[in-house]
């Protein structure tokens, strides 16, 4: 263990056999030092598939806030095992000071007589690694409505993103299908540090969202004959590391912002918001380190974005979220709320509680009382949301996402 790790970060591991659908109780999670293999902590998961929050040494905060020559995050290895499943080794889990890292571990059933060990390697953070320069593209793409690829009258939030794990023309690289919000959280955890100011984090997430939704709306790669939405090549697109840990501070911001994108008057599409680190690579869009400096000066997210993309940009929200049974009612649900939206939440939480028994069953009466608030608060704790007991925008859509996933599995 390095003696210069004077600060602390948090790691919590969530284990399931189907992501967010079947939590794995009593899984053994071992955290080790990659330098000498020594065991730092061994913990087990609860009925929600979660370990306790484990505090771990991390480098000084200023390394990730100011930049410099020292790596700003600590590395740990995590091994997860459970009855009748494979063993999963995750190498290089990143821990930032004052931040909470979330490592999702999806275990596959063991194959009798097989080699039931799987390894996941987390790549170095993009701000700590020299990546190739961005290939410039226009902020607004020409749209050929006769091509057959653009069929949506307006941007929508897709249920899934198909990520090509290589350059666009690398036919040896595989593809993975990832829920939209999980993709954005992964990219943001690869691209920025969760120790940055909240407004800086939000500005960068909005750029990531707009970049991604431009690829979705214009069918950029499918229009070129490919069967994927985006790549994980930073020269063409954005960093994405399948299986890596994310950060709670980033997760909360994505849950709040995921339907938003950047645009301008008189264009139909999300702006193609290229960005770069601003130190090793330069581009015509947002500088990640520059945005951090502006956040330290007190700039809000929109002011940061206008610095790089122009004073005429504004934030728009997509009207439709694919794969969701019903849209957010527009106002938070809280104690005293009545009606069909409350009934919807109660019904969905009861379905979810079949897999997550810590969430108490509710009477479906359309009345938001203490019992509903307590079940909502338990849900929020399990899924890394602010524990308010109210169903706000973020909580509504997360309840809907988990409900849909569990319903699909049951059918």
Automatic annotation (TrEMBL):
InterPro entries: Peptidoglycan-bd-like (IPR002477), PGBD-like_sf (IPR036365), PGBDSf (IPR036366), SpoIID/LytB_N (IPR013693). It comes from the Bacteria. Pfam families: PG_binding_1, SpoIID. Residues 177-255 form the Sporulation stage II protein D amidase enhancer LytB N-terminal domain. Residues 339-398 form the Peptidoglycan binding-like domain. This is Peptidoglycan-binding domain 1 protein. It comes from Monoglobus pectinilyticus.
